[in-house]
Amino acid sequence: MTTYGTILIPLPLSQAAPVLGELCAAGYALPAGPRFCLAHPDRSVDDNSVFALAGPISAALGTPVLAAFQYDGDRLELEVWRDGTRAHRYDSWPVRDDDDADDVPVGADPDAFLAFAAGPVDRHRLASALADTPIDPRDMDVDGDPGYVWAQALHWDVLHALGHADETIRRAQWDCFHIRRAPQAYEEALDGTKLLVLGTTDAPS
Asked: What is the pLDDT of residues 107-120, one digit of tens each?
């Protein structure tokens, strides 16, 4: 499965663009509905991961941001940053890094994510997703183990519960490396909206 990292910002791209252009050394940004935008930084560049950039972006914009990193379909990490400080951290599989950790998600507090609601919030769906308890049986592990079989589905349910449209969620699961391989195809998927190219990244030709 693919890996991706993205930052969800509760501002239109036109407002966030100057700060993203200043702070992100390489990557892309794109709209995510009328009141949100997404940044897809190039994590191969030093100090340019979603978690490294989320603090400075939140401080410069004066708004909370939600950094997400999904690793290989197995693990979802979410960090809420406000005014340059990490306010909340969620990890769907903490035992991956720490054998002594409990094998349950850390930071499964729905209230921590309400600042990123794009519409009415489905609190039951949000709490269930953060607890790694799929509502849809199709998202459950086929071997009978508890939890989501893919972390992308967990991320999808979190954003869906926060009222984001399907198209926005699909964009939130893109990655800088995906876009770089076929930028024109991704621009076509934006319904005529141009990708904002950040830093040293080549513009689509």
From this structure: 999 999 999 999 99
